[in-house]
Predict the 3D structure of the following.
Amino acid sequence: MHGESAVVPSATRAEAAQALKDFLATYNRAEKAYDEQVLDAVVTGQYGDGKKASLRANRSIRPGGNTKFKPLELTDATFMIPKRAGWPRFFVANTDSNRDAGTSRAANRVVLLFTKFGAALPWKVAHVAVLTPDEVPVFKTDKDGWAEALDPAAKDLAIPPAELSKRYAAYLTNGQPNGFAPGSQTTGRRAVRARYAERPGKSTQWIDQALDAGTYTPMGLRTQNGGGFVFFSCRHYEQVKIDKSVKGAKLPLSASVRALMTGTPNDTLVREFESAQTVTVPPADATNPRALFLSRTQALVSAKGS
């Protein structure tokens, strides 16, 4: 049987464990030195863009690296590895982090999406989500413990995975189509934008775009209840304009923004963000067929002043 068409596990369990180990070693080396080129070997997609931009900004601010760096440890790992034909392939690692040890969040899980886009290419992390134990669903597995990858066009889900990015971008822009459960990242986020759109001496506008091709392709696993657990990304532009004649009107020029900025911020600043969303999507015939946000992170990737 041809290797590209055979339905096989995306990785062996040993390969998945090694990929996690390799990621940790490289991540810690890169974070300590604020070296985005080192990190590039193990990250991709939205997570890669955001982390590399963060390292670039931090290196500009602190050229000597992170003198207070504490190595990240990810333990108690379990792997959900789907069978796939062809590329890309992926698996999910469910881990425990040392970063919250001794706190009220110590039970939280760090869930990583590893992707690989060719046989000769390395495993890279495309998404990272921090979830409570209750937010990690029970995944559907076969008799051998292999997970089931979601079809991007799955019509038996309330929202097919391939449509999540463009639907969320459209929802943030105009509230439609609304296939998302109310919450801080849906109704709450639109309410915050409405509150901050116009303030004395300052106006803010947003443009939201789908980010769903290539290394940003939405990926997910079938859950035991017939729904899906999906990672997807979006791009967001935020333009802030100020009227300098109004006392106290200032552009949000943090050290990180200045480190990533091109142009001169006279009265306008455009910040580009990429966001990573982790959601559960119920079956299309569910009583309340709306996607539920479990995690959303947003990272600054560039800025332009004018």
